[in-house]
Amino acid sequence: MVKCCICGEKIEGYGNNPFPLEINPEKRCCDNCNDTYVLAARLMLIKPEEADRIKKLIEAVREIDTK
Ligand SMILES: [Zn+2]
């Protein structure tokens, strides 16, 4: 069984490459974390000037998740 290296949930299927949040190539993350955190982190790498805006979006998504 493979666990998501970000949230610790069990991964269905193959999971996703969590780079750049995790540089160990053997680690995997779930679809949910991939969509929420990994894609956002990649955007920050490509567009550092957007990092603040992206961080705020992530925080907004996290608040929805915990409600
Ligand atoms: Zn996850």
Description:
The protein has helices at residues 31-46, 51-66. By secondary structure, it is mainly α. The chain has one domain (1-67). Helix 1 runs antiparallel to helix 2. It starts with 30 loop residues before the first helix and ends with a helix. Bound molecules: zinc ion (ZN). Residues 4, 6-7, 9, 29-30, 32-33 line the site of zinc ion.
What would you report as the Rg, rounded to the nearest angstrom? 12 Å
Q: How much helical structure, as a percent, in the residues?
A: 40-55%
Mean of the pLDDT scores? 90
Strand and helix order? HH
- Category from helices, strands and their pairing: mainly alpha
Strand content: under 5%
* Span between termini: 28 Å
Number of strands: 0
Spans of at least 5 consecutive residues whose pLDDT stays below 50 are: none
In this entry the ligands are: zinc ion
From the spread of the alpha carbons, the general shape counts as flat
Specify the biggest β-sheet. Answer: none
Number of helices: 2
Task: Give descriptors for this structure.
single chain, 67 residues, mainly alpha, 48% helix, 0% strand, flat, binds zinc ion
Provide a short characterization of the protein structure.
The chain is an all-alpha fold and 67 residues long. The chain has 2 helices and no strands. The mean pLDDT is 90.
